[in-house]
Amino acid sequence: MAVPRENKTVKVPDKIPYHIAIIMDGNGRWAKKRLMPRTMGHRAGMAALKRVVKACVKFNIPILTVYAFSTENWKRPGEEVDYLMKLLVEFVNKELAELHEQNIRINVLGDYLQLPFECQMAIKKALHLTAGNSGMIFNIALNYGARLEIIKAVREIGRLVKEGKISPEDIDERLFADFLFTRGMPDPDLVIRTAGEMRVSNFLLWQIAYSEIWITDKLWPDFTEEDLLKAIDDYSRRERRFGGLIIKEKGEENA
Ligand code: FPP
């Protein structure tokens, strides 16, 4: 992929990830440290998200995926869930015009039709307005769970087999991936997780099979453009083998 390497203010590494996926963790801890309610952590998390979207556009990242609300997040206190839903509507109302101006295409991963009505309306507006944009794809995972996504794909494929439209032998990785929310998109190259937790939390389980993982102790509301650049820089130095070997030139040492 050809991307401009030089940026006005920062030097962007040569090898940049095509698709970055982020687990935005630590909003609650950020608020707790400041003796604030958890909801304030989510509000600060929204500000961090705005920064990171801008930074990804600036660094020419073609796809950004963020984990905003998981299928498991419904277990949180009703008050917190309600606040997150309100924040989503606020995010769309305040940011949509600018996201559209930046030629960003918004996409939702997950069953958003189970969200409150106002959220569904806000999402539909965002999807509709940005559908024709050709810039960065901004995937927001909402009411998303990777296991459910996989089960949904299996059900749909099973139905096609039952109807005789495909045979079991037709099922391969490519066909399977077409039944996921990320249909048509390359898998994430880099997964970033904030707040130091070493787990994937039911996020894109199929798609991150060979992704590079970058974890920082920074809490999500504190995450900046500079942190993103650090993650990209670290990624650019990694050697990806996808289960194979790097064949060295004659005379080079094999590591
Ligand atoms: C995890 O932090 C974060 C979430 C469950 C929500 C992420 C939401 C945002 C960043 C808000 C803005 C986004 C939109 C589009 C609504 P946590 O609460 O689990 O933190 P903790 O582990 O420290 O408790």
From TrEMBL:
SUPFAM superfamilies: Undecaprenyl diphosphate synthase. It is an enzyme of class 2 (transferase). Its cofactor is Mg(2+). Substrate binds at residues 26-30, 38, 42, 70-72, 74, 76, 193, 199-201. The active site is at D25, N73 (proton acceptor). CDD domains: Cis_IPPS. InterPro entries: UPP_synth-like, UPP_synth-like_CS, UPP_synth-like_sf. GO terms for biological process: polyprenol biosynthetic process. GO terms for cellular component: cytosol. Binds 2 magnesium ions per subunit. Mg(2+) binds at D25, E212. One of its GO terms (molecular function) is manganese ion binding. The keyword Lipid metabolism does not apply. Its EC number is 2.5.1.-. Pfam families: Prenyltransf. Keywords: Magnesium, Metal-binding, Transferase. Belongs to the UPP synthase family. Homodimer. Catalyzes the condensation of isopentenyl diphosphate (IPP) with allylic pyrophosphates generating different type of terpenoids. This is Isoprenyl transferase.
